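Service request form, structural biology core

Requester: graduate student, group of Dr. S.
Request type: structure prediction, single chain
Budget code: on file
Notes: please return the result as structure tokens.

Sequence provided:
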Amino acid sequence: MLAKALTEAEERKCLLLLRPDFSGGIEFASRAVSFEVAPGEALDLQLFAAEDEGRTEEPSERRKREERDKGNVPKSQDMAGSAILIGGGLMLFLFGTYMVQRIGEMFSRYFGLIATQQGVFGIEELQVLMKDLFYQTGMILLPILGITIVMGVVGNLVQVGLMFSLQAIQFRADRMKPDIKKVLPVRRNLFNLLKVIVQMLIITGVAYLVIVDDFIPMLKASGMGLTQAVTIFATVALKLLLLCGVLLLIISIPDYFYQRFEYIENLKITTAEAKRERKDEEGDPLLKQRQRERAYEMRQQKNMLDEVPRADVVITNPTHYAVALRYDQLESNAPMVIAKGTDQLAFSIRKRAQQNNVPIEENPLLARTLFRDVEIGQEIPENLYRAVSVIFSRLTKFRQRAGA
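Core staff response, request fulfilled:
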């Protein structure tokens, strides 16, 4: 191992190489540090950081789903533990008499067998005896074991919902690596220390109050029979168990919300990572914008084609340009462009006009001029009145002859 005290300049050099700030800057330490680095080993300065730097963006739903799939969810271990404690206490209160009776019957039975056999048992008899012993013990402990399993499951379901993850039980070598953050005076460790101190004070206070309240009956138990003495001490223990369980459950509620806060803080990401995730989740913003523009253009083209049947004439190039004109003296003072397009759109306009018996006039120069100078919904300029009026006059004469 090579020990070396770094100067401020050398420390800055290491930070430049090892601690890039994703937001575009580099954070420099304000004092020199001393540590050891094995030859060939990379130094991870994040191990010495109390809080992650530059992680200001809220985690995305995708990141939360990935962590949940790994079994990493915010929860308070104390909530499930206190639920088990309360459930166990209630089962002792409800089935305590039954359990004591079964234990007494089991001891009386086996001691009677030992006295009858004079302590001599064959292998087959011993096997039968051991199977029966395990069965009787299981029947006695079954209520306690059942309620502890149920309360443990309920305590976790309330916090994280129904979840099953194989990744949470897989072997990972990095879990065996010591985590130096667990011994540093960071916010999480200080909160856990304070929580443990509060729990100890509460348990001590509750034990004192319960024992003081039942202190006289406990002293009198020395002159009572075994059953009465056991009942008194069992009642005191049960009261202590239930009160501690309830109080610890109350403490676990703020602990749960704090664990959620720490969970979100640990999942926060840098601005660059947030942009990359949004890009992966939603696609390239430029591509999305282009898709929206294309969809808008297609809607505009559909609306424009729906106006072609109302046109009085369609002027074409004849193939590359198409402009549909409509003239209604009640709506406008001059003919108005209601549709126009080039190439494929021009073909669609001509096709729609043919389907609806709208006259089509070939006039390349006029078609290009109208397409270039007049927008959809605008009246034609005065310099085009003469050329357009000739077309409309010819169409009027044609319609008059067709009507005659």
